[in-house]
Amino acid sequence: MNIRFNEQILIGARVYGPGEVAEVPDLEAQSLIFRNIAVPADEPREAVSYVVKQARKATRRGKQREARDNNTPG
Q1: Cα 34 to Cα 36: distance, rounded to the nearest angstrom
Q2: Measured in whole angstroms, how far is the alpha carbon of residue 12 from the centre of its chain?
Q3: What is the pTM of this model?
Q4: What ranges in 1-44 are assigned the alpha helix state H?
């Protein structure tokens, strides 16, 4: 299972830092997730929030454009 580390941790002979992604056995991954040391890497939290933010901006811009187009004498 792919996980993204929240904290620095030593596994075997390798040190993983915050934000680093690694493939670990499922049982070990579940243990690290339960202890809040890592999160599943399949959850793109930053990317989702960026997409939502851009969608909100686009909606506001879209509404402003519509208002300008409706006020134009024609």
Answers
A1: 5
A2: 27
A3: 0.54
A4: 26-34
